[in-house]
Amino acid sequence: MGAAQFKDLRRRVLMESAELSHVSPDGTPALLCDLPKLHAACAALRAEVGNKRLDLVVRRRIQGMLGLLNLYLDEGLELCWREASLVVSKTQGHGDTHARRIREWTLQFLQSEALPLHRLSQARWTVLRDEDVASEIKMAMVEKAKKGFVRAEDLVDLVASPEMQKMFSEKGICKASISKTTATRWLKNLDWRYQSARNGMYIDGHEREDVVAYRHAFVERWKTYGMRFHQWDDDGHELPRPNGFPVPDGLPFRLVLITHDESTFFQNDHRKIAWAQTTSRPTPQPKGDGQSIMISDFLTSEWGRLCDGNESVHCHLFPFLVLTCFQGGSDYLQGWQESRWIFRR
Q1: Bridge-partner residues for 262, per DSSP?
Q2: Who contacts 148 (Cβ-Cβ below 8 Å, separation ≥6)?
C-alpha cells in the first residue's frame, strides 16, 4: 500500500470515528472527502471574510469556519473533523459547544453555500405583525377605554378570551396567553402610553355672576370677623387681644374660630394615570373634585378639641356609615347642635 493510499484510508477512518454520522447523517462523510469542494469553500470563505457589508459577528463566524477547513485540509497536522473544530473554538475563547456550532455552520455552507447569519439586534416576529389581529386588539382596547381605565391586565384577559383564541386558531397562531410584561410591550407597539389623564374642556362654570358675588360677600364678612378673633403668630406666640368696638345687634364682641380636623372624600378624586393611545383625544371632564363626604372633628386655637370634660363631638371613619349619615342629614345636624351646646357651656 502506497503512502497516498494510506493517508486516504486514514482520513476515512478518522471521519468515521469523529461521530459525523449524528452530526449530518445525509452523506456528510462523502462530503468531507470531496477535497476539491473543500478547497473551493475555503476560497469562497476567504472572500467573505473581508466583506464589509457583513457585521463583525458574521465575519467572526466565517473566520472560525475558514480555520476549521484549513486545519482539516492540512495533511501535516493530521487532525480529524472534530479535533480541528475544537482547536479553532479554543483559539476564539470558547469550548465544545461553540466547536459544534462551527461544524454545523461549515457543513451548512458546504451543502447550500449559506452564511451563518444571525438575528441579534433584529426585531422578532410578533402576533402584532398580523394586521387583522392588531386591528382587533386596537378596537377592543378602545371600547374598553370608553368604559373606564385601561390596564395591561385587560390585554392579558383579551388574549385569553375565546374570541381572540378563535382568531389565533384560524390564522395558525399558537398563543394561549401572554404575561403582563408582554401586554405592556404590546400596548407600546400599538401606540398606547401610560400617562396622566388629559382633561378636555371643563363643563362646570366657576365664573358665574352668582358665584363671584358670593365670594366677594364672604370675604367682606370674614374681614369683619377677623378683627374679633384672638390670634397667635406662626411661632405660637400670643398676639395682643383685640380692643372692643361696637358690634351690631348687641352680639358678643369676642369670636372663637372653630375649625375642622377632617378627612374628605371627593366624587372626582379618581385615578389620573392609565394607558391611553397617543392619537386619542381628551374627553370632557367635570371641573373640580365634585361632591364630597367629610368626616370632621372640631378644633379651636385656644382650647384644642372642642369638648366639655369627656364629652366631645367627632365622627369615626366608617365610610358606609358616614355616607348614610350625610344622606339622612339628621345625625350630621345633631353633631353640629351638640358642638353648639358644648361651646356655650
Answers
A1: 296
A2: none
Characterise 191 by phi-psi region: left (phi > 0), alpha (psi -120 to 50), beta (else). left
Copy the grid coordinates of residue 340.
353648639
In terms of phi and psi (left: phi > 0; alpha: psi -120 to 50; beta: otherwise), the region of 47 is: alpha
What are the residue ranges spanned by the domains of the chain?
Answer: 3-112, 127-190, 209-344
Kindly report, residue by residue over 171-182, the tens digit of the pLDDT. Answer: 888 888 899 999
Residue 184 Cα distances to 109, 181, 196, 272, 279, angstroms: 40, 5, 16, 18, 18
One-letter amino acid for residue 342 of the chain: I
Assigned C-alpha cell, 181:
410584561
Q: What is the DSSP letter of 128?
A: G
Q: Which residue has the cell 405583525?
A: 129
Q: Of 236, 218, 252, 248, which is closest to residue 304 (Cα–Cα)?
A: 236
**Half-sphere exposure of 85 toward its Cβ, with a 13 Å CA cutoff?**
20
Report the alpha-carbon distance of residue 224 to residue 320 in Å, rounded.
Answer: 39
Residue carrying C-alpha cell 502506497: 2
pTM of structure: 0.37
Strand partners, 299: 259, 305
Cα–Cα distance, 98 to 60 (Å, whole number) = 12
DSSP 120: T
What is the b/e burial string over 143-155, where b = at least 16 CB atoms within 10 angstroms of the residue's CB?
ebbeeeebbbebb
Q: Is 78 left (phi over 0), alpha (psi -120 to 50) or beta?
A: left
Q: Quote the CA–CA distance of 32 and 109 in Å, as a whole number.
A: 12
- In whole angstroms, what is the distance from residue 253 CA to residue 269 CA? 41
191-232 pLDDT tens trace = 888 887 777 666 666 777 888 889 899 999 888 888 788 888
Angstrom distances, CA of residue 35 to CA of 30, 108, 114: 10, 16, 19
The answer to whether 228 touches 257, Cβ cutoff 8 Å, is no
Is the Cα dihedral 108, 113, 115, 119 positive or negative? Answer: negative
Q: Is 291 helix (H, G, I), strand (E, B) or coil?
A: coil
